[in-house]
Amino acid sequence: MTLLALLFGALAGLGVYAFVRVLLRPQPGVATLLARIDRGQKSMHTHTMTELDSTFSGMSEGTRNLMGRLGDRLEVLAADRGWQLGRVRADLAIMGRSVGAFLAMKIALGLIFFFVAPLAWGVLALVGLELSSAVPVLFALLLGAFGFFIPDLALRSEAAARRRDFRRTVGIFLDLVAMNLAGGRGLPEALLAASTISDHWSLIRIRQTLANARLVGRTPWQALGELGEEVDVEELRDLAAALGLAAEDGAKIRQSLTARAATLRRKELSEAEGDEGERSQSMLVAQLILCSAFLIYLAYPAITRLLTA
Questions:
Q1: How far apart are CA 173 and CA 151, in angstroms?
Q2: pLDDT of 123-175, one tens digit each?
Q3: In this structure, is residue 208 part of a structural domain?
Q4: Is residue 227 within 8 Å of residue 42, measured between CB atoms?
Q5: CB 65 within 8 A of CB 14
Q6: Sequence-separated (6 or more) residues with CB below 8 Å from residue 216
Q7: What is the CA radius of gyration of the chain?
Q8: Whole domain around residue 236: which residue ranges?
Q9: DSSP state of 51
Q10: 253 within 8 A of 187, measured Cβ to Cβ
């Protein structure tokens, strides 16, 4: 019992220490300040936040403010420590979410799931069911780890769906740019005009990127390439590379864009056919399981009589 008390005390002290360290604003280094200035000059943070995109949507105002302050501290902490986060940062970029909000949600869910096991153990103890004191510790650690990684799983699936939507938009965008080029517009004007055809979130993202590139004096294809790197959309990076190589020849650009759009449509069609085939196989497996269960249900009385005879 003494050992368990020491263990719980150490965990509680570690949690309090981590919470205080997060609330204290760390002093950013020179590299962090330069990175912030560079991001501010480029103005490439083209997040199109909505209520559906917000990480803290559905929370009360007080909870949202608390999570927002915690997210700001974690944002500074991640920048000061130089955390790259790899694919997670690209997924957050495609979803229009910040790193700090994502880390705050991970910590909040981890703590909530961590305290579920002790609460359940206390309820069972009040009912009269006695369990070993080591059980809630193990379950608390397991549930805390599970809650900590739930946002990663949700983010990965949501970002994959949004990335597919973005690829579909790129194919449509290529056709629109080719039509604007055929109408006699220059390449920068054709890109910007094609991005204003709709208020879809992906076209808004492209439109903001092109507008910001004009303000800071960068070429549109460079800005599109950086956006492709940020959100990890390979088709956008390939488009930026093709536009950079053929920017001086409008006819070849039109032919290249038309061919790329057709290639993207064929790829999308093949992926859709593959997804439909997977769903058909899943339905077939479900039907086989239902039929097998029904046959077992019908044969169970006869088998029971044969075995007991």
A1: 32
A2: 777 777 766 666 777 888 888 889 899 999 999 999 998 998 898 888 888 88
A3: yes
A4: no
A5: no
A6: 41, 42, 43
A7: 27
A8: 164-267
A9: T
A10: yes
Token pair recorded at residue 205: 């993202």
The confidence score (pLDDT) of residue 22 equals 57
Nearest 10 degrees: CA dihedral of 268, 269, 272, 277? Answer: -140
Structurally, the chain folds into a number of domains equal to: 1
Which tokens in the block code for residue 89? Answer: 């940062």
Q: Are 108 and 67 in contact (CB under 8 A)?
A: yes
Compute CA 53 distance to the chain's CA centroid, rounded to the nearest angstrom: 10
Question: Considering the domain boundaries, does residue 119 fall inside one?
Answer: no
Q: Which residue has the tokens 């899943």?
A: 282
**Is residue 255, in this structure, part of any structural domain at all?**
yes
The answer to whether residue 51 sits within a structural domain is: no
What are the residue ranges of helices labelled H in 183-233?
A: 187-195, 201-216, 220-231
- With left for phi above 0 and alpha for psi between -120 and 50, is residue 59 left, alpha or beta? beta
Strands (E), 159-298: none
